[in-house]
């Protein structure tokens, strides 16, 4: 079988177009003409030996082969970029103090921070997992260089809005569709106040005239998930970082009110950060590229 060497520039155009939801937008971001992008996509399909895109209405969607290609393209580009960073960024040194919500801790610590540590072994990263209010206070006081936090309506001077994540009611894994609690208030499992999602849940239930009670209060997400998995009640979070013992309910699977989405922001302590902080900030923003932003 003849070996195929995929063109990384072509793969980057392909991935960018899918993430932005438009190859015209990809052309603009990558500084290419739309005809050049079309030629690249044609080249990709020739290399793949099968269509990776098909028309759907006025746009294009992935074929089954295209979905497979997208997954591999992302991995190839990530490895390419990591290699380039390792070769050209080895001189970075110093330290970066990063704050994260528990929701992001597991995935980001193993993925983004692992890549950063391999590429910049001379940079020391200190990570603090904390609640939203503490993260913002520490960034504002200069005790953290970066913080990835939910948009709670509190601005910091140097914040970048990365996108929005849907809010979902969370129930024990395998639970059937939730029906209204007719004989008793809805039992809620929530983090200790103040909590952005706790406030959003109770306000939405009040607007829908659904009675509720706090059945379990936890200081950590681990305790929240344990209580939900045990069937003590339902919670409200995003689909990010959920353990296998719980599940996010789709809006059509529950009679509880829909909650929309929650903004995600990257806060910086300073407008002009050190090269190490800038590099880590860039890596932290990458997973959310292509996410919808609030108008």
Structure, explained:
- The longest helix has 25 residues, at 64-88.
- By secondary structure, the chain is an alpha/beta fold.
- The model has no long low-confidence stretch (mean pLDDT 85).
- It has a five-stranded mixed β-sheet with strand order 4-3-5-12-6, sandwiched between helices. A three-stranded antiparallel β-sheet has the order 10-7-11. Strands 1-2 form a two-stranded antiparallel sheet.
- α1 (8-20) packs across α3.
- The chain is globular and about 65 Å long.
- β8 (186-191), α8 and β9 (212-218) form a beta-alpha-beta unit.
- It contains ten helices and twelve strands.
Topology:
Layout: H1 8-20, H2 23-30, H3 34-48, E1 53-56, E2 59-62, H4 64-88, E3 94-100, H5 102-110, H6 112-119, E4 123-129, H7 132-140, E5 146-150, E6 158-166, E7 168-172, E8 186-191, H8 196-207, E9 212-218, H9 221-229, E10 235-237, E11 246-248, E12 261-268, H10 275-285
Parallel strand pairs: 3-4, 3-5, 8-9
Antiparallel strand pairs: 1-2, 5-12, 6-12, 7-10, 7-11
Helix pairs in contact: 1-2, 1-3, 1-4, 2-3, 4-6, 5-6
